[in-house]
# Entry
Amino acid sequence: MGISSHELHKEFPQYSDLIDELKSNDPRFDEKFREYAELDQEIEGLEKRDSPISDDKLHRMKQKRAQLKDNLYQALVSNGKSS
# Structure
């Protein structure tokens, strides 16, 4: 399985401008965005270095990343409709 970037702008290119806007204007979105980005970088680094980590721990990290991405997506959808 290849290592791929899950950077939010790449995941949701249609919301690229809205992501930037919310990062600047919505502290809650910015906090979740930063948490997502840090976790994504940590996972990607572990995968690239083939670091010793249990499959269970890596799986939990990926589940957390997916949960954060879902939350961020919901914020994007709701803010995209109100704009």
In short: The chain has a mean pLDDT of 89. The two ends are 39 Å apart (CA to CA).
